[in-house]
What we know:
- With about 140 residues, the chain is mainly alpha-helical.
- It has a domain at about 1-50.
- It is about 85% helix and about 0% strand.
- The protein contains 6 helices and no strands.
- Keywords: Membrane, Transmembrane, Transmembrane helix.
Amino acid sequence: MKNRLDSLLDKYWEGDTSLEEEKEIKTLLQETEGYESEKRFFQGIKIFANQKPEEFALLEKSKKGFGLWLKIAAIFIIFLAVGAAIFRYQEKKAEREAFEQVMQAFNMIQTNMQKGTQSLGVMGEMKHLNTTQEIFNLNDIEK
């Protein structure tokens, strides 16, 4: 009897038993000493099969409520991520505009500096004339 029970249990754990063989396993387990873990396993299956559907319905309702909150949290996170991305984009755009304004100011300074340097070029040509006498040739007039 133990050999038959062992072979049926091996088939059961492999998933190769028929319904009649499963019934035979249950009856052999009731008649045989030992096999406590297998007895508890089949008892648990029996309790689970006898459980009322209302007990499962309560579990489903609580999961639905949790699922709703999970969806709301996911939407909130998505909006938060999109908002952060838009904020970063606007910040980089403002930095780029400020950089362009600074470069325009430098360009304007450079242009004005070149104009000033060109006007000083004329003064540089008069540099070799150190005195007013040389400018107006006053020495020639006095003689």
